Amino acid sequence: MAEELKIAVFASGKGSNLKAILDAIKERRLINTAVVCVISNKKDAGALEIAKYNNIPAYYISQSNYSNSDDFDAAIIEVLIRHSVNFIVLAGYLKLLSPRIVRKYKDRILNIHPALLPKFGGKGMYGLNVHRAVIECGEKISGATVHLVDEEYDHGPIVLQDSIELDPDETPESLQKKIQEIEHRIYPEAIKLFVEGKFIEKEIINNEY
Predict the structure, then answer these.
(1) What pLDDT, on the 0 to 100 scale, is given for residue 204?
(2) Which of 83, 113, 147, 184 is catalytic?
(3) What confidence tens digit (pLDDT) does each residue in 150-159 have?
(4) Cα–Cα distance for residue pair 94/90, rounded to 1 Å
(5) How far, rounded to the nearest angstrom, does the alpha carbon of residue 131 sit from its chain's CA centroid?
(6) Residue 33 DSSP SS3
(7) What is the residue range of 28's domain?
(8) What is the tally of structural domains in the chain?
(9) How far, in Å, CA of 39 to CA of 53, rounded?
């Protein structure tokens, strides 16, 4: 992409991936990139506080505040247009984007998932649920996946993956901490591929999976 990426980050939680992206921008590991707004469906999301601390417009937009999904989508799209957003990054956003938004920003929406897709994806597969399932299934490795978003949960072309081996005494909590470290590293790397126009449909690093 030749033009500057003007990113809207959608997040429902603490915002650690948002912080990782902002750090990459500040440290010039990501250039020609700006986070222009942050949207959350959770009023108390830490991501909103991170946005405010960094003087980034922050919006709480919940479907519960709208009488129908069309009005909810319209409210989100109005914010995206107001800030001239041309790229969306989902960073722990625990809600499926509507087909209307996915189609409007086709091939310009990324998500990060705390497992090696296509395994351990889909509805309900988030947070400790994912890591618990990985351990219970006896997996020897796990990792994180950045992928393009389509109209299904955790489904779309893989942009970047990286992996680690599980320890014999691994717990969901210990695995989550390790996977988050991978997420914070590869999410900015994945965005950089789009900034530089170098996206390859599937690139897997250090991964024998």
Answers:
(1) 34
(2) 113
(3) 988 888 999 9
(4) 9
(5) 17
(6) strand
(7) 5-205
(8) 1
(9) 15
